[in-house]
Specification:
Blueprint: H1 14-39, H2 54-83, H3 90-111
Helix pairs in contact: 1-2, 2-3
Length: 114
C-alpha cells in the first residue's frame, strides 16, 4: 500500500522556511513602497505632473524593483523546495504561484508595449 502524501501549512525544510520568510519580506517591501508613495507628494501644477527625477524617483522605484526581484526569487526557491526536497507545505505552493504571477508580470512588461 502506498503511503499518503501529507500536506501541511508551514514548510519543514530549511529552503522552504527561507522561501516563506522571503515571500513575507517581499510583501512588507510592497506595503512600505505604498506608504512611501503616499507620504511623498507629487509635484503637479497646471501643466500636469512631470516625471519624477532624482531622489524622489529612486525612493519610489527601487522598492518596487526590489520587491519584484524578491518575488521571482521566492517563486524559484519554492519550486526547488517542492520538487527537490519534497516539501508539501501549502504556503510553498502559494508562494510558487505568486512567483509565477510575478514572472508573467515581468514578461508582460517587456513583451507587450504600452
Amino acid at each position: 500500500m502506498k503511503a499518503k502524501k501529507k500536506f501541511y501549512w508551514l514548510p519543514k525544510t530549511r529552503l522552504g522556511k527561507i522561501s516563506f520568510y522571503v515571500c513575507i519580506s517581499a510583501f512588507v517591501i510592497i506595503y512600505l513602497q505604498y506608504g512611501i508613495s503616499i507620504i511623498i507628494p507629487n509635484r503637479c501644477d497646471a501643466n500636469g505632473c512631470p516625471d519624477p527625477v532624482g531622489v524622489e524617483f529612486l525612493i519610489r522605484v527601487i522598492p518596487g524593483v526590489l520587491a519584484m526581484a524578491i518575488v521571482l526569487i521566492t517563486g524559484i526557491t519554492s519550486i526547488i523546495s517542492i520538487v527537490k526536497y519534497r516539501d508539501r507545505a501549502i504556503v510553498l505552493f502559494v508562494s510558487a504561484f505568486i512567483g509565477l504571477l510575478g514572472l508573467l508580470f515581468v514578461l508582460g512588461e517587456f513583451l507587450i508595449p504600452h
